[in-house]
Specification:
The complex is a heterodimer. Chain A has 14 helices and no strands. By secondary structure, chain A is an all-alpha fold. Chain A folds into two domains: 73 residues; 219 residues, MetI-like fold. In chain A, helix 1 packs antiparallel against helix 13, helix 4 crosses helix 12 and helix 8 runs antiparallel to helix 10. The longest helix of chain A is centred in the middle third of the chain and has 36 residues. The radius of gyration of chain A is 24 Å and the shape is globular. The model of chain A has no long low-confidence stretch (mean pLDDT 88). In chain B, 25% of the residues lie in helices and 27% in strands. Chain B is built from 14 helices and 21 strands. In chain B, the strands form four sheets. In chain B, strands 2, 9, 10, 11, 12, 13, 14, 15, 16, 17, 18 and 19 form a twelve-stranded mixed β-sheet that branches. In chain B, helix 12 runs antiparallel to helix 13 and helix 13 runs antiparallel to helix 14. The chains are: A mainly alpha, B alpha+beta. At the A-B interface, helix 2, helix 4, helix 6 and helix 12 of A face helix 5, helix 11 and helix 12 of B.
């Protein structure tokens, strides 16, 4: 198991290094950040001064080496716009993003698993059809539209939940639904398809022949076997939610990393973009590692093979 | 010493007695769409920063709700001529203190100027290039000596900010950036980036007439327009900034709500390629055709929901405004005739660069509509949408990308503002290394001479005349772009709960100088 963890960590480090090169190059292709920091009438001497101040007058390779060298010590530089450490800007926002992504994922799984299981058990029936339509709705509607609709209904009309902000459990409900509804359809399909395979397998038939209650067969023996592909996808979905929550964060004024990084992209705030993308990459790698390790928990055969 | 003008005593300050006799108590929550990144006026890099620091910091002069310039931290000031060079002498208002209790002195303004002149700190250091020396006369008097005239110095409220020298030197730069201290009606309590700013009314505030009457102010950051509207409707906020244009009519009818609509300090225009030899826009008849081709009133009404005001070169209230100068009337027949006269009876195709940014409501759609009108008379636009960064790149700095058609542009004159600086940027010819014509596609020697003259003219009467003269030529020749509209902003508040008098900070209306709970 230790060898597996170390191998995955090594592969993860290579991925993060690759991500650092890509984001460093791409961000610089977007143009000169200094012209966005100065007023339009700023003289060239002032622009040159600021370029020197941020090391942007150095050769690109040297800039990258300095960046990666400092990054290894936890120094991602100061945000050009916020004039504070970029890492602090990201880390301060990270808990809010993790909270939102986790709640969004929880919501999606809480819907997808029962819908997927019931759809498989009642294959072709009305429960199957309704369940799939409900799941598909989330995929058919963009998150910004779902978010606004939720605000209109649950905040403005019913006044049950806050329309925006962060801080109490009530604040996370609407953003989590807006974020989590989209992957429900895909997760439902995965669960349904895996359940159909498992329910058709020999050991389930044997359980039925032995008179095991159907509820136990479906919700314990079959679901446990069917959970492996879902777990694989959950790691990917969690990471995607961490990096892709920008729209939901903006709509609900949620103080997360996604909003911070996307705004930094538009203002060419390289240190914040780099810190944000690298941290998202690290979380992506870690969440996939956790998924790999969790296989063993649900399926002892995998643990034993490795 | 020959005095040119003298600042008025601050008699006008007593005109708005919202704060008189009211105790400061309670908490008010307001919702803003945009967020400042910096809370120190000397380190600011964007106009949006003043939304925050404008509550806590003050200048020598400021603009009152009627857009008149009044004395503020300056009790009086005068501009004189000494040996052919301008000199401004300022007497600071006695009794003004910083939020930490320190009195404001000349040394604090001198320190503020040093910060503003330091390019390592300030993105606007060039604005003080004309100042030769800062002389401290006594604790409450100082003198600014100029190398040459600086035409926009006075209209920019004398540029300087009161910065607490002793405090910054004591706590250090990092701590000061975290918890700023100014002289304004609000003092800093806490800030959560992307979430909120908490302020508390400053008990020792010098202006007892015009001050907040609520104790605590919470500024929530809600970037999405519809969410901000929802927050207001649900009662989460009681004052809303930048009501979306499409919702202004609804807000005007909303029960228990007051709205205030005012022109912003931004100025929008379409600029033409007149710097490349084969451009059809080198012919003034083509530029005039474009000016007659666009029904800007209709676009403002339909696309901007009336949240815009047409202007011809200089907006109402801005120095140099000429009521006789009217925007070109919409006349597509005349436009087609001018185009044919210029040798383009079948029109021509041209790239039309369109700015798309959330910074100005519906700016993308406004550009598209204007380009559609141009296409209708034969200036067939191939629209190319540009996000803000790509749009900025169309400038003519050290490595100029070519702007080979039409571009929708904006350059704030401010409130009430001054067109001098923007004109030096987009009307003066491009001069590498001098910061002149940085976004200009115009090359006109007469105009350059007049612009240089206004740049150094501080006498307001002479300056006004010069600005009007430039505006007339600019308008007649459609030089430096075709002026289109000034955006307007609508703010709203709950009448039963909030007492509010809108005050502008430079260029904006998000200033809580006078606000309270009923």
């Amino acid at each position: 198991m230790l060898a597996l963890v170390l191998r995955r960590l090594w592969q993860g480090a290579i991925s993060i290094l690759g991500a650092s090169v890509i984001i460093f190059v791409i961000s610089r292709l977007s143009g000169d950040p200094v012209v966005m920091l100065v007023p339009p009438d700023a003289p060239p001497s002032l622009i040159a001064e600021i370029r020197t101040q941020y090391g942007l007058d150095q050769p690109l390779v040297w800039q990258y080496l300095l960046f990666i060298g400092h990054a290894l010590t936890g120094d991602f530089g100061n945000s050009y716009r916020w004039q504070m450490p970029a890492l602090k800007l990201i880390l301060d926002r990270l808990p809010a993003t993790i909270q939102l992504a986790a709640c969004g994922l929880l919501f999606s799984v809480a819907l997808a698993v029962p819908i997927g299981v019931l759809s498989a058990v009642h294959r072709g029936g009305w429960i199957d059809r309704i369940g799939r339509i409900f799941a598909m709705l989330g995929q058919a509607m963009p998150a910004f539209w779902v978010g606004l609709l939720l605000i209109l209904v649950f905040a403005v009309q019913l006044n049950w939940l806050p329309a925006f902000g962060h801080g109490t459990p009530a604040h996370v409900v609407l953003p989590a639904i807006a974020l989590g509804w989209y992957p429900v359809a895909a997760q439902t399909r995965i669960v349904r398809s895996a359940m159909l395979d498992v329910l058709d397998s020999d050991h389930i038939r044997l359980s039925r022949a032995l008179g095991t209650p159907e509820r136990l067969i479906v919700w314990k023996y079959a679901l446990r076997n069917a959970a492996v592909p879902l777990l694989t996808m959950l790691g990917v979905y969690f990471a995607a939610m961490l990096g892709g929550a920008f729209v939901v964060e903006t709509i609900f004024a949620w103080p997360g990393v996604g909003r911070t990084v996307v705004e930094a992209v538009f203002s060419r705030d390289f240190p914040v973009v780099q810190a944000g993308v690298l941290f998202t990459s690290i979380l992506f790698v870690l969440s996939n590692l956790l998924v790999d390790l969790s296989y063993g928990l649900v399926d002892p055969r995998i643990r034993d093979v490795r | 010493m020959k005095p040119w003008i003298t600042g008025l005593a601050a008699a006008s300050l007593a005109a708005l007695p919202l704060a008189q006799g009211l105790a400061q108590s309670g908490t008010l929550t307001v919702g803003l769409g945009a967020e400042a990144t910096i809370m120190d006026p000397t380190r600011s890099s964007a106009g949006v920063d003043s939304y925050f620091f404008g509550q806590m910091f003050e200048q020598l002069l400021r603009t009152d709700p009627d857009l008149k310039q009044i004395n503020w931290l300056a009790e009086s000031w005068n501009l004189a001529d000494e040996g052919g060079k301008p000199v401004i002498t300022v007497k600071i208002r006695p009794g003004v203190t910083f939020h930490n209790g320190d009195p404001v002195t000349s040394a604090d303004f001198q320190y503020g100027m040093q910060r503003q002149q330091d390019p390592k700190l300030s993105r606007f250091s060039h604005l003080l290039n004309a100042v030769e020396a800062f002389e401290v006369i006594d604790d409450l008097t100082f003198r600014l000596r100029f190398k040459e005239g600086d035409g926009s110095f006075i209209t920019s409220n004398l540029h300087l900010w009161a910065m607490p020298k002793r405090h910054i030197e004591k706590v250090g730069e990092e701590e000061y950036q975290r918890a700023p201290v100014g002289t304004g009606p609000w003092k800093f309590v806490s800030r959560t980036v992307k979430e909120e700013l908490r302020l508390e009314a400053y008990e020792g505030y010098w202006n007892k007439q015009n001050r907040p009457t609520v104790k605590n102010l919470v500024i929530k950051i809600i970037p999405e327009d519809l969410t901000r509207v929802a927050a207001y409707k649900t009662g989460a906020i009681d004052w809303i900034d930048a009501v979306p244009p499409a919702a202004t009519a609804e807000f005007a009818k909303l029960e228990n709500t007051s709205t205030y609509t005012a022109v912003t300090g931004n100025n929008l225009f379409l600029n033409f390629n007149t710097h490349q030899p084969n451009s059809p826009f080198n012919d003034v008849r083509v530029r005039r055709a474009a000016a007659h081709a666009i029904d800007m009133d209709a676009i403002i009404k339909r696309v901007l929901f009336d949240q815009g005001e047409r202007y011809a070169e200089i907006g109402r209230g801005t120095p140099g405004y000429d009521p006789d100068l009217k925007p070109y009337p919409y006349d597509p027949r005349r436009a087609r005739a001018l185009l044919a006269e210029a040798g383009h009876p079948r029109g021509f195709e041209v790239p039309c660069y369109n700015l798309t940014t959330p910074r100005e409501p519906n700016i993308k759609e406004m550009g598209e509509a204007a380009y559609a009108y141009l296409s209708a008379i034969g200036i067939r636009c191939q629209i190319r949408q540009l996000e803000y960064g790509a749009w900025i790149n169309l400038g003519r700095r050290d490595a100029p990308p070519e702007m080979d058609g039409i571009v929708s542009w904006m350059w704030s004159h401010g409130l009430p503002g001054d067109p001098g600086t923007p004109w030096l940027g987009h009307l003066h010819s491009y001069q590498a290394g001098k910061g002149l014509g940085s976004y200009s596609y115009t090359d006109n020697a007469e105009m350059d001479a007049l612009l240089r003259q206004q740049q150094t003219t501080m006498d307001p009467v002479k300056r006004e005349a010069l600005l009007k003269q430039i505006a007339r030529i600019k308008h007649d020749q459609v030089l430096g772009g075709l002026t289109t509209y000034r955006p307007m902003v609508t703010i709203a508040w709950r009448t039963s709960k909030v007492a509010f008098k809108p005050w502008p900070s430079p260029g904006f209306w998000r200033n809580f100088q006078e606000i309270g709970l009923k």
